[in-house]
Amino acid sequence: xxxxxxxxxxxxxxxxxxxxxxxxxxxxxxxxxxxxxxxxxxxxxxxxxxxxxxxxxxxxxxxxxxxxxxxxxxxxxxxxxxxxxxxxxxxxxxxxxxxxxxxxxxxxxxxxxxxxxxxxxxxxxxxxxxxxxxxxxxxxxxxxxxxxxxxxxxxxxxxxxxxxxxxxxxxxxxxxxxxxxxxxxxxxxxxxxxxxxxxxxxxxxxxxxxxxxxxxxxxxxxxxxxxxxxxxxxxxxxxxxxxxxxxxxxxxxxxxxxxxxxxxxxxxxxxxxxxxxxxxxxxxxxxxxxxxxxxxxxxxxxxxxxxxxxxxxxxxxxxxxxxxxxxxxxxxxxxxxxxxxxxxxxxxxxxxxxxxxxxxxxxxxxxxxxxxxxxxxxxxxxxxxxxxxxxxxxxxxxxxxxxxxxxxxxxx
Amino acid sequence: xxxxxxxxxxxxxxxxxxxxxxxxxxxxxxxxxxxxxxxxxxxxxxxxxxxxxxxxxxxxxxxxxxxxxxxxxxxxxxxxxxxxxxxxxxxxxxxxxxxxxxxxxxxxxxxxxxxxxxxxxxxxxxxxxxxxxxxxxxxxxxxxxxxxxxxxxxxxxxxxxxxxxxxxxxxxxxxxxxxxxxxxxxxxxxxxxxxxxxxxxxxxxxxxxxxxxxxxxxxxxxxxxxxxxxxxxxxxxxxxxxxxxxxxxxxxxxxxx
Lengths: 412, 257
Prior knowledge:
The structure holds two protein chains of two kinds.
Chain A: E1 23-24, E2 27-28, H1 37-51, H2 54-66, E3 74-76, H3 78-84, E4 87-92, H4 102-115, E5 120-125, H5 129-141, E6 144-150, H6 151-156, H7 158-166, E7 170-174, H8 181-195, E8 199-201, H9 212-234, E9 242-246, H10 251-258, E10 266-274, H11 285-288, E11 290-294, E12 297-301, H12 326-334, E13 337-343, H13 344-358, H14 364-376, E14 386-391, H15 399-405
Parallel strand pairs in A: 4-14, 5-6, 5-8, 6-7, 9-10, 9-14, 10-13
Antiparallel strand pairs in A: 1-2, 3-4, 11-12
Chain B: H1 2-12, E1 17-23, H2 30-39, E2 45-48, H3 59-70, H4 75-84, E3 91-94, H5 97-103, H6 105-114, E4 119-121, H7 131-140, E5 143-148, H8 154-163, E6 168-171, H9 185-197, E7 202-205, H10 211-220, E8 223-226, H11 228-235, H12 240-256
Parallel strand pairs in B: 1-2, 1-8, 2-3, 3-4, 4-5, 5-6, 6-7, 7-8
Helix pairs in contact in B: 2-12, 3-11, 5-6, 6-7, 9-10, 10-12, 11-12
């Protein structure tokens, strides 16, 4: 199926391949048990062939258009802009089917799964958005689906657990370690070591062994490629001065950045500040992490003096991860992007702010990006700047949790 | 090159090799467990250095690792305790790559060598990523044992066998460590492929749990590695005596053939 130009999602962008064995500078790589090497080599071959194949891109573009609802709009926020003294544009990934940017990557990987002749898909999930997106794509394609989710996250994201089960997926609570996203990834890798012959691991962020950080960035670059063109239309051909996105593993940020790396825009990733960096309870892996290897890649991770991985903390399950994707570590090292953070409380305040000025209830994750902007507008971001923020997902999933924090009691 | 030399000599003398695994820092008497395993007929002993995120390990070794970490064990603590022990058989540490990278390749290799540790197994460091650690270990005479899996292609298997030192570790099934009811059919194929590919001592591990399974697997290779079945006995409250008794039954079964 091919679509007329301008009629729907367009997939024309291609970014640089990592070098050697999946390297972004000194970060990345393929540090995984030998059992998985053959599957990762197959995946790399299939992805390279598919991504260079116009018919694959057309098929994915058609799905993104007719199923996921792309292109998503860029919304100019007039009232909030006036409040902050900047010109604020939002890339509206919250308006996609399933409610977050995760669907972009999952539809691409579901097509790859079909190409490889595999019949089962496994995935990790934190907030549940990637799990819901994966369960959705598996229902659409008739694939078996198992989602691993930290037991703590199963508690705090009950709505998404129900959605996944309704979509026909099996949800497996993971009790080991900190029982959050990091441990869900461990358990998904363990399943994959046993089932790799018929199962594809649909990694949800720009993390993991090569080729995942590359594949997920390329499937998410539609966010940044669309936003760049949309911003130019709104800004009379100019690019925004600042481009901001939240960073857990970093897929919405890397997808957004991919559209702007060749522009002069200042790129900003906002990590989870949790209870504050000095509290030790946060997810700020660029700010406080050191180089290490976890989940298959060399990157920046929160760890102790012995190299044991520390537990992250964030009010937002999607940012509750003690590492970042290797390309973010590279961008930080090169100075191509800068990384800041916002605390739990600041994120909650930003939810109220956007809801009441623009009528848009954001998810907790992108609320961190808005919180950073609202803190630095007029100082770190000069008045009059044009700013694009990627609104990676909508806030419905967080309603019960946020209500408790706002003292509204238990919604359930 | 003591690890490979000793295993090769025993194999060539007709003995089936037995390498039990124990988690370092698990309980107060884990160093005594190491000595008991040697006394019970182990040909080398694999000692785990616990890591927070052991992706190649199933529930038993995860639980042991977490218990040891909660007990305050550190990589230096495990290596230091091994330096003070005298098991009389070669020692191989098994850990994940992050603690090695965090300590620094040269420093970690030197610490192992100084403690008299003969070899290292790093299951998330496949042959293509080996260089930094492999070179540092070689320089200190620490033998890095590589793993081969049922999914490993023949081309990679040749490369792995050429680079592995001490022995070659054949993963006997698709999956992580843990006890299984029966030996996987893949174990026999794995053993046969290893024997055709290399003259290194070839051991099968992962899912080898009972004396019967050990005998069956060892028939296709040069010997076996037994981990979770032993560690479970320690988690259930067993000490050096129980560990030694279990390894003695494995030894006796392998010697009977």
